[in-house]
């Protein structure tokens, strides 16, 4: 049985959905710029879906035996199937782990937005962008200065010089 929600509550929940969508889109845009298999739309939908599941979990069911944590737990495990689809083996190397991790993290952003924690969701988005953008550059710079090949490659001369992270384009 679902409870009747006041109009202002429904508007607030709609704003939570929108926040989840927007934050997921921001991270997805970064992935899209790097031509990753899961980009703008995929990340947007994962964050939106996670926000909606979280809202339905918290507000959609009422009464004894209602447990909002059950749906949240299923989001965490269910997103693993989507992430697994972005991980590929290519020429003996594993690719797509960063994209899979970003999808998993975007699901958490959506959950935070859906649970009414906008500051946490926004900070999570900023930190994800730091990891995806800035730390990628730091890693490449360190590997270049230390004359190390990218992860998953043999000697430096076997490394393709396309400047990309570990994900496939």
Which terms would index this structure?
169 residues; mainly alpha; two-stranded antiparallel sheet; 5 helices
Q: What report would you give on this structure?
A:
With 169 residues, the protein is mainly alpha-helical. The protein has one domain. The protein has 5 helices and 2 strands. The chain has a two-stranded antiparallel ribbon with strand order 1-2. A hairpin with a 2-residue loop joins strand 1 and strand 2. It is elongated. The model is unreliable at 154-163 and 165-169 (pLDDT under 50).
Low-confidence stretches: 154-163, 165-169
- Measured as a percent range, the helix fraction is 55-70%
Tally of DSSP β-strands: 2
Strand order of the largest sheet: 1-2
Q: What structural class should be given to the helix and strand makeup?
A: mainly alpha
Number of domains: 1
Query: N-to-C terminal Cα separation, in Å?
Result: 46 Å
Mean of residue pLDDT values = 82
Sheet with most strands: 2 strands, antiparallel
SSE string = HHHEEHH
Give the CA-based shape: elongated
Radius of gyration: 19 Å
Brief description of this entry?
Helix content is 66%, strand content 4%. The protein has 169 residues and is mainly alpha-helical. Strand 1 and strand 2 (93-95) form a beta hairpin.
Which secondary structure elements does this structure contain, and how are they paired or packed?
Elements: H1 7-33, H2 40-59, H3 68-86, E1 88-90, E2 93-95, H4 97-114, H5 118-145
Helix pairs in contact: 1-2, 1-4, 1-5, 2-3, 2-4, 3-4, 4-5
